[in-house]
Predict the 3D structure of the following.
Amino acid sequence: MKNKTSFPPQEGEARPSRCPDNSAFKQQKLPAWKPQLTIATVLSSFFLIGAFCLAVGVCLVLSANSVREIQIDYSDKCSDCSKLRENSSNWNKECHCSVNFTLKEDILGDVFMYYGLQNFYQNHRRYVISRSDAQLLGRNVNIQKSYCAPFTTYRNGTPMAPCGAIANSMFNDTIDLFYNLNSSVIQVPLLRTGNSWWTDKNVKFRNPESYNLSSAFAGTARPPYWQKPVYLLDEEDERNNGYINDDFIIWMRVSAFATFRNLYRRVRRIRQFADGLPAGNYTFHISYNFPVTKFKGRKHVILSTVVWSGGSNPFLGIAYVVTGTAATLAGFVITAIHLKLRKKKTYFQK
Amino acid sequence: MNVRVGDIIKLENNQFVAADLLLLCSSEPHGLCYIETAELDGETNMKVRQAIPVTSELGDTSKLARFDGEVICEPPNNKLDKFGGTLYWKENKYPLSNQNMLLRGCVLRNTEWCFGLVIFAGPDTKLMQNSGRTKFKRTSIDRLMNTLVLWIFGFLVCMGVILAIGNAIWEHEVGVCFQIYLPWDEGVHSAFFSGFLSFWSYIIILNTVVPISLYVSVEVIRLGHSYFINWDKKMYCAKRRTPAEARTTTLNEELGQVEYIFSDKTGTLTQNIMVFSKCSVNGHSYGDVQDMLGHKAELGERPEPVDFSFNPLADPRFQFWDPSLLEAVKLGDPHVHEFFRLLSLCHTVMSEEKSEGELYYKAQSPDEGALVTAARNFGFVFRSRTPKTITVHELGQAITYQLLAILDFNNIRKRMSVIVRSPEGKIRLYCKGADTILLERLHPVNQDLTNVTTDHLNEYAGEGLRTLVLAYKDLEEGYYQDWSERLHRAGSAPEAREDRLARLYDEVEHDMMLLGATAIEDKLQQGVPETIAILTLANIKIWVLTGDKQETAVNIGYSCKMLTDDMTEVFVITGHTVLEVREELRKAREKMMDSSRSMGNGFSYQEKLSSSKLTSVLEAIAGEYALVINGHSLAHALEADMEVEFLETACACKAVICCRVTPLQKAQVVELVKKYKKAVTLAIGDGANDVSMIKTAHIGVGISGQEGIQAVLASDYSFSQFKFLQRLLLVHGRWSYLRMCKFLCYFFYKNFAFTMVHFWFGFFCGFSAQVRCWLLTLAVGGRQFLWESRAQKRIPTVYDQYFITLYNIVYTSLPVLAMGVFDQDVPEQRSMEYPKLYEPGQLNLLFNKREFFICIAQGIYTSVLMFFIPYGVFADATRDDGAQLADYQSFAVTVATSLVIVVSVQIGLDTGFWTAINHFFIWGSLAAYFAILFTMHSDGLFQMFPNQFRFVGNAQNTLAQPTVWLTIALTTVVCIMPVVAFRFLKLDLKPELSDTVEERGAAAAGGRSRQLAEGNTLHLRRLRYEDSGRYSCSAGGRPLRSLRLLVEEPPETPRVSCYRRSHDKDVLCEWPQRAKPSPGTRATLWVKRRFSAENATEQRCRYFSKARKFVCRVKVPPGADDTKPLVVSTCVNNGAGGSAGEDRIITLSSVLKPDPPLNVTVEALEKAPQRLRVNWSYPSSWDPRFYWLRFQVRYRPEPAQTFTEVDQVTTTWLDIRDAWRGTRHVVQVRAQEEFGHGTWSEWSREAVGTPWTDPRDLTSEMGPFSSQFPTEDGTYWVTLPPELFQEDDAADAGGAVVEASARSTASPYAFLGIALFVGIVVR
């Protein structure tokens, strides 16, 4: 052993101490909460959650049952029209059909009218990206850079407004509802605005700035499948025309699944319809423009009311009831297992 | 310094030798120089090197400059103890040997300066040749992780293929029709090609399942753990001012999985300080620390050390606690005086007196220094020596002795002597040496004293002290003259000089008078035995690999509790040839198996088992064994054909000590274990000789603060005390492992939960994740980040594009990192208290392939719910204002929000230790998610980048819907509740040790124990042995007191009987027990030769509960004399007391009791109606090659009651000539050793037979001519009674040693004598 270890003390003090700090963090002694899965917490959480889920589930089921909904598939009923539309050269020929239905009871409250499409893959990747949000914001952008292809420009270079596959495939059937009251036919008043999100209507979509709409869209052309240019979507209402047309906005909010319904109109609650739709015979007059047979799709028209949880959808309520039941049962099973099978624990052992 | 071969280097005292040098000359006469080789082989005694005579005169530089010799030598190699070469100089040849070499790593001692010629430098030096290659170390979890990532990649490709096929089919069936609204991309002309493209794009989308950020996070966590190690105050050595240091940051979790520790001895286990601690003089033992009442005092309450102030020459550092020795010196006890006189004369220490009274001793070995220092303090001060004299200050009086001869020490003699002439003219020989050697050379009149001293020696050895025996002898002048004449002649004899000298030494060192014995403590480092005990409890096997001598190593083994007296046997392997080593290993294995089998299930084995069987048997061995192997034997044992045998033997032992090993052998041993055992190994050492082992082991630990930093530089962790190892492994290692495992489980879970949603969504969106070809090339180019970000911008998936980017980085990474860094399952004290907590790491239970699949399954389960519940809700639903709910963006926000919430809840469940940081990260992540979500969906960002932030307004519109929140809540409940249920049930039904420990901790802290509800008294009804343990009492969450309760019953007095089955078998001693002994009962048996001073051999006895017997196996040393009487003593003790049996005196031949003869058959002889032929065979336990058996046959006709006996049969057959006609006879045989030693065996099983009967008067009952009992099933010829063999097979198979533990409840009456020992420890 050499005497290396016996340094003079002052030298040792001069050196910085290499002793680690005695802080709780460095010594891993931070105060901490150590949650434990005890029988009390587990069982109480299971029973509480079970009770909560059952309660919510029952509410949801009850409210979903109170929703009235009428759904009419008109893709077959208008077979003539659909045949006509199969041939794309007939694009400018008009075709109408009507569908009758009877309401046995009144539908009270707000009534919403939807069009539903089946098998229409709005969630397809190429479809979803095929739009230019900058263009829809009214900006003059080079849409060549967007993913609108092949619905970007015409061969002669005229850009499409709006561009992209979503806009091009916009649902363009016109559906009117008539109430047959004592052999007289009353058109049910329908609201065509106020159906879209406020943010969409006021932030996300903007018409190009100009003194009037048609000049704003000068130099552009309608998408190939459209029958009229974008600034003629609603000739009656200036604030519902061009890109900020509600039908257009709603269409542009693509659906997550291939089967979906979009809000089309709301029943305006005036006159006979102040409380909703009275019982009786009704007719849908449909101007059939949107071909679906090509892709084996179906079209529906739906009338529905809503409650706090939205429209008629039994799934959530049933799921909650099932979950609540399962949680409660699991609580009982755990109790039983705990009482029967657990290892006896005595703390007074080494 | 640029040292090259051929340079001449000057070294000064205490300098490290920088290269392998040929010693040319030194400051000492004859070119001698002293070196310390601790760095090379761990030995700290000094060694002498000598220059060859021709160069030793080259004292000054001018002569050296003219030196132009040429050295031709062997190529560089790793043999530390061999060197061969020739020096050519001035047309002469001089042979060079290792004796002329100074090897790199040695330290020059006691030599002012020396010059050396560089022979090997740099990597050619023997030291460097001995250090293994540096390997890149990775942890097993790393390797597993890499495999898993590959698997995940495979899984990813599978998903890609499935989705691509789906895409091709979809495009073919559906997409074709949909082309009016969505034409195919340019260049895509077929569904097949579209599928091909979609394969690549899915690979890109789903790549989040292969966690790239995993590696980064793992490194961050390891870095954190390394900092915790560096910061640990409990691993800081204040004395050396060195904190622990994690020198690598990649191995932390492996610290939690260590199974084998390879430790150096010198400087690691020991401090390398020798202290004179006890002595026995004339049958009186001194040195026990005693308190006032004369009882042996416990450590920690030591009284003041003895005051040596009367002696001005005393060494102030020397301490001794027993004042009676000093009193004896002062009273002038002649024995004590002679004792210290011997110590001050008989040594080779050099003294140095720098100023008056300031003495320094330079000792070759620290033991010697300690002894001389002790003598110095007790007033016998060795002052100076010349070649002819030694001057000693005896109690202040200077006396000069004439030094007549030094009979020096070597490994064979194991003793050294001096012959001195006192001033009065008396010639006396003083001798000190190993007890085994010296006790045999004593004069017979010493018998009584020898016995007492032997007892003391045993006591000292039991405490792990190194002992030496001291003796003297008066020589007559005439005899001495004659002897010295002969010595002189022998010294000058040309041949066989050594032998002749040895014979002369032997002659004079005879018939000596015993003086006493010394005991030196090789000071262990602080806390070494405790650390080893705890590590052993944690199932870690510790091997000591040392360059030191075998005796030293074994001594240290005992003192640090690696070897204990409880061990069934310590095998020592010292063979010099391959065959010897193999034989010794085989014997050791047979011993182990023998005991485990014959004691265990009763199958005696006769055929040699194949080695594969051997292995499995060895693994089930229950007894405690230890193996000591020497370096030269190890060299053979490590050869390719024997290494497996060696390893299996060694691994079956509880402790392994390898002595005299070279650095490379150390590495080879580590490599061997690594290779065959697939276990995590850790090597710890302090010197350069440990570097190779440190580099080879999975984890290398360097002890810092000692001289030399090679070991530290090569190590992965370093600290300055061996005892810190337990903290490093049991606390830091365990936590690291636990945290890493939890982290990995969660990480894989969250990525699968996240990514698999894409997969399910693929089935609903036409499998449409397509990218263009230029993206593809980027993907193939592998520029991960670029294409990842590009792809995510381009490909709308289930989620918002930014969510994908941020999910791994912001939303989920920090909580899991915090868990990975801070989590603790049990407090650190608990992991020391319960070393068993370390086991999950060794067994790799917390993260393995099974756990991985569970995590993945949980992730997939979560992803399924995460997609399908929102799908079910959204499919037809509308918002409460009538608008569509199921738009793509709302769906994305809903899924993403529920995903973030679910994984946050999950991490909350996983986090067992919520520090403020965990709280901050978990809640912060959730808050950050919502903050970022609303920012991303805000108007401002959209106005700036409309094409990038197209989710504008989505968050506020979607999250305002009660349905959405109900969906999120439902998803969370459904994802989490099953996990909670499973975890709770697992905890409830199969709690891990850590759970129960934690729960107890919680119970103690929370005072929730049931028993406390009964008031403030605890009643233990029906007290059982199992009630022993620590009881603590707490109130208001604070532990008040704890006490230990011991429930045991004093043992019964043993009545021993011994027997031996054959000459070459061990003796078995046994005694019956009336009741089952308490669990802590230890029974020990000592055997020693009567009238002999040798140490008794000690055996641990085992209790066999079925047979109700204690059985010991007494090993008979080969070549033992069968007729010499042996004394067998027994002692049984436990916490409640002890009792000793009467000594029994046996001879090995008198206890012989063969097994009964086998295969006894009785045959009729043709045409001899009165004769029967009896045949039998030797019992299998008896080898008839050495001694025969003689037999006694007895027979009777069946109707008769009495047997007729035939004596003195030496054949294995007998003709009975007086059989009754036609009657069945019963025959039995028993055996005894041929000379009548020992006792008769038991009678064999009865055999029956009927003599031949004339067929004419054949009666109906004629059976077969011979009838024979079937040979037994193998259990028969073992002497142990059959019921013994049925004992607790289960326990033995499981390897339980103490089978008396808590199996059956002892009956109530057994508790009448129960003693309770209650020691109260106030916390």
